[in-house]
Amino acid sequence: MRIMKFRWNPAATQGPLKRKKLENNKMEIVLQSGKTNAKTFSVQNNKIDEYLAKKREKRRKHREAVKKAKFMNLMQTDALRQEVNQLNDMLKRAQEELVIEKLGGMLLSGGQTPMLKDSDSIVQASVDLQLERLKNQRLQEELDKLKAAHCDLNRRYQADVVSVKQQMDSLQQELQKQMKTNDCGESSTEAAEAGEGS
Question: Which keywords annotate this record (predicted)?
Fold first, then answer.
């Protein structure tokens, strides 16, 4: 013969009012735990919102820094370009003056000068010729200085352009990296919210 175990169920032996009371107590416990979960989710949601707001602000500041760097690059490039153009103009003027002076010197030394009648005129022409030679020498030195300055400015301009481009590239890479991490962070929080909602 088999012995059956009997399990005592207080709800089965008690009246309908007691059963209702026990069910209400169970429901209250479930509701209270749900409220605590809702509070926890609300706090976590607020933290996530704060984190995302900070990330957006950081991204906005980074974009502003990139725009500012681009603007500064353009400003520096324009300033250097204007300086190079000014030096080119000065160089052209100096070359033109030098050519004119050489032509003038060639005319004087080529025997095409008017006949000088007295010795004072010859002395004066000799002095003028020496002055022109000194002037030509000074202009040539100035031209050489301008050429050296022009080359130096071109080198600095090229170096500045390269460094600004590198800076701009690094800022753009950093911005893209932050955007990728933000996008990954946002998608993982959305996935977490969707998982908790189901």
Answer: Coiled coil
- Write the single-letter amino acid at 183: D
User: Quick check: 38 and 46 in contact, CB under 8 A?
Assistant: no
| Cα–Cα distance, 173 to 161 (Å, whole number) | 18
pLDDT single digits (tens) 22-38 = 777 777 776 676 667 66
Question: pTM of this prediction?
Answer: 0.33
Residue 181 has pLDDT above 50, yes or no: yes
How wide is the angle at C-alpha 70 spanned by C-alphas 171 and 74, nearest 5°? 150
Q: What angle do CA 57, 59, 61 make, to 5 degrees?
A: 70
Contact 156, 80 (CB under 8 A): yes
For residue 15, give the amino acid letter.
G
Range of the domain at 165: 17-111+125-180
Any domain includes 10 = no
Q: Does 118 reside within a domain?
A: no
Number of domains in the chain: 1
Token reading at 188: 């993982």
